[in-house]
Amino acid sequence: MKPTDFENVIVTYNNAADVPGLLSDLQLHAPAARTIVVDNASPDGTADLVMSRFPKVRLVRNAVNVGYARAVNQGFGLSHSPQVFLLNPDIRIPSAAVFEALQECLEREPRVAVAGPLQFKDDGRRPHLNFTWSYWTPQAFEIFASYALGRPPRATGPLKVAFLNAGCLFIRRSAFEMVGRLNERYFLYGEEPDLFLKLMRHGFECRLVPGVAVNHAREQSLRSVPSFRRLRYRLRGVLNIADAVIRGTANIMLDRLTGRRPG
User: Fold this and answer.
1) By CB neighbour count within 10 A (0-12 exposed, 13-18 middle, 19+ buried), where does 229 fall?
2) Between residues 220 and 19, the one the model is more confident about
3) Confidence (pLDDT) at 166
4) Residue 128 CA from chain centroid, whole number
5) What is the pTM of this model?
6) How far apart are CA 134 and CA 242, in angstroms?
């Protein structure tokens, strides 16, 4: 592995309790990789904590909450490496093997734009459906059936899937830039299917690497907002996801019908 060939991008909002653990993991397991944190005006002091405890981190303080997609694009705009590890602040990384396996996957297969590990819940035993849109494929379903039965899955090598959860993605910069980064029309939710459908449209592929795993507490930022606003975000998120799927699928079908190649 060449650790200087990738950078970490993390978007925070009210993650003072979570992000120190992730940043400590990155310091321990990937000390040569540069880390960029984009804070969306957290009122809980997240930005001050990052600045005081992790002075080597490149910190961006947004004056207002600009949304997830725009903040991710800000972080990418400040990075320069050919590969970028996009991470939610409530992720924990157990070993350097995670970086090694994901980077190897991208370097071995030029058409793979994104790779991601398995994601486990806080107890470290129950997997998340972190490739939510792809779990119906036989190999992917076998992974979750195996864990439900209390045995390790047979598959450990990279599996081709259509989508992955954006909380933990190892991304090829050239592909991400080619498809226009994340769609900033989506404040929260919707950016995942939009991204992966754009990648699919351009002929790129996605891999789940079940041989490595991270822990993901999931949606800690969302839990910090009042319940009414949280409900509004979720309802709007359903509309965003539907919009992204309809638009993305329609574009792919139109390309196939007309023989047009996206440029």
Assistant:
1) exposed
2) 19
3) 84
4) 14
5) 0.90
6) 16
- Dihedral (CA of 10, 229, 215, 127) sign: negative
Cβ count near 32 (within 10 Å): 10
What whole-number distance in Å separates Cα of residue 78 and Cα of residue 55? Answer: 17
- Structural domains in the chain? 3-258 (3.90.550.10)
Token pair for residue 153?
Answer: 């899955």
Q: How far apart, in whole angstroms, are the C-alpha atoms of residue 18 and residue 2?
A: 27
Q: How many residues does the chain have?
A: 263
Assigned token pair, 100: 């090694």
What are the two backbone dihedrals, phi and then psi, of residue 147, each rounded to the nearest 5 degrees? -65, -35
Q: Which amino acid is at 154?
A: R
Give the pLDDT confidence of 53-90 residue by residue, as tens digits.
999 999 999 999 999 999 999 999 999 999 999 999 99
d(CA 212, CA 217): 17
